[in-house]
Amino acid sequence: MVVTHGSLQPALGPCALTIGNFDGVHRGHRALLDRVGAKARDIGVTSCVLTFEPHPREFFAPQSAPARLTRLRDKLELIAAAGIDRVHVIRFEARFAALTAARFIEEVLMRGLRTAWLLVGRDFRFGAQRKGDFATLQGHGFDLGEMPDVLLEGERVSSSAARAALMAGDFERAERLLGRAYSISGKVVHGARLGRDLGFPTANIPLPHRPPLAGIYVVEVDRHGRGVASVGYRPTINPVPQPLLEVHLLESNPALYGQRLRVRFLRKLRDEAKFNDLDALRQAIAQDAAQAREYFARHG
Q: Could you tell me the residue ranges of all domains in the chain?
């Protein structure tokens, strides 16, 4: 899959296109991507996704923006796995936010991407002040398709529903909505070695955006096995301003600095808590690790 960023240069050929944030690349998104891919093959053009970084709500109202289900890198990997040929990532900033619906159609859809077919939902909005809608897209030289909602057990599959399930610790429901177990990936950085001093060394992964969960969890780490993880701000000692994922592996203690880990969340054990002293923190971590081992003993 080809990934392009920034200013759009005229595409070499026409495309079948869809547009969105695609946070989580859930089962609804996957149905959308599958239709775009199938249409592109049918009419002999490139399949393409147009997405944004940051999320528009992070630009307009960062304090109330939704938690991120996926980092950009993970989102692109999931879109590639769906068989899409190209993704263009538009930097969502003031100039782009001020683009009128008419200019968006002319500059982005027609001149930049050479859209032959566009698939969006009936409630799709675009352009300055969200004035562009489905009707606005009609009659511009490209065919237009409408994507219906994808329902799961009567519920609309959405990023909001997946976030709500994760916040509630309902990983089975989140997996049904996402179509896969929820995971976070990131690069391990050097920390303050507090976990090692407490007897529970951790791999520390800073999270640039607020994730949709917080607390202590039973996890699995690709290629490294089982573990227990904390997601939060480390309130007892050395608090951090940005959320941090700390993973303690139960069966090994390899050197992981600089490696990119993928951590799958299986069960919530408790909320993050501030303890009175390091002994209380050590006892809590030991109990978390014991509960994680019990979980894996029951679940194989």
A: 2-159, 181-299
Q: CA–CA separation, 129 vs 259, rounded Å?
A: 42
The values of phi and psi at residue 48, to 5°, are: -145, 145
Pick the CATH number of 181-299 from 2.60.40.1930, 3.40.50.300, 2.40.30.30, 1.10.760.10: 2.40.30.30
Q: How far apart are CA 171 and CA 169, in angstroms?
A: 6
CATH of segment(s) 2-159: 3.40.50.620
- Count Cβ atoms within 10 A of the Cβ of residue 98 and give its class: 0-12 exposed, 13-18 middle, 19 or more buried: exposed
Which two three-digit tokens encode residue 115? 């859209």
Write out the two tokens for 160: 């909001």
Whether 124 and 133 have beta carbons less than 8 Å apart is answered as yes
- Quick count: other Cβ atoms within 10 Å of Cβ 184? 24
- Four-point Cα dihedral 47, 65, 247, 275, nearest 10: -170
pLDDT digits (tens, 9 = 90+) for 121-176: 988 999 999 999 999 999 999 999 999 999 998 889 999 999 999 999 999 999 99
Establish whether domains 2-159 and 181-299 are of one fold: no
